[in-house]
Amino acid sequence: QVQLVESGGGLVQAGGSLRLSCIVSGRTFSRDYMGWFRQAPGKEREFVARISSSGDTTYYADSVKGRFTISRDNARNTVYLQMNSLKPEDTAVYLCNAGGIPTVAGDYWGQGTQVTVSS
């Protein structure tokens, strides 16, 4: 059974930082593209960042480029999202995604972790 478990969300002031983690089980993690998406209330789920199986290639939404960094530790089956210079508009539930190809999300999702940025 595939499981993705996110952690690290919380309440932070604008300009602050958070680091999200997602631990994956039930899959060969080192073969998977991994990604982070987010969904704010009343809005569509949107792409945030993606990383290749080896970690050599990363992709970012324009809205987070230069502020967020995606990374992975294949020995720990974990993907991270370092979020700096947070803005109120970054407030959302952040979801981890496993599998897929560079431009298409995979089939596996975590439950999400809430990030709230106060102004």
Quick description:
Helices cover 0% and strands 55% of the residues. The protein is mainly β.
Structure description:
It is a single chain. The chain has 119 residues and is mostly beta strands. The chain contains no helices and 11 strands. It has strands at residues 3-7, 10-13, 18-25, 34-39, 46-51, 58-60, 68-73, 78-83, 92-101, 104-109, 113-118. Strand 7 and strand 8 (78-83) form a beta hairpin. The chain is globular. The model has no long low-confidence stretch (mean pLDDT 96).
> Average pLDDT, to the nearest integer?
96
The end-to-end distance, rounded to whole angstroms, is: 40 Å
**Count of distinct strands:** 11
Low-confidence stretches: none
List the helices and strands in order.
Answer: EEEEEEEEEEE
Strand content: over 45%
The rounded Rg comes to 13 Å
Structural class: mainly beta
Helix content: under 10%
Using the alpha-carbon principal axes, give the shape: globular
Major beta-sheet overview? 7 strands, mixed
Number of helices: 0
Please describe the topology of this protein.
Elements: E1 3-7, E2 10-13, E3 18-25, E4 34-39, E5 46-51, E6 58-60, E7 68-73, E8 78-83, E9 92-101, E10 104-109, E11 113-118
Parallel strand pairs: 2-11
Antiparallel strand pairs: 1-3, 3-8, 4-5, 4-9, 5-6, 7-8, 9-10, 9-11
Task: Give me some keywords for this one.
119 residues; 4-stranded antiparallel β-sheet; 55% strand
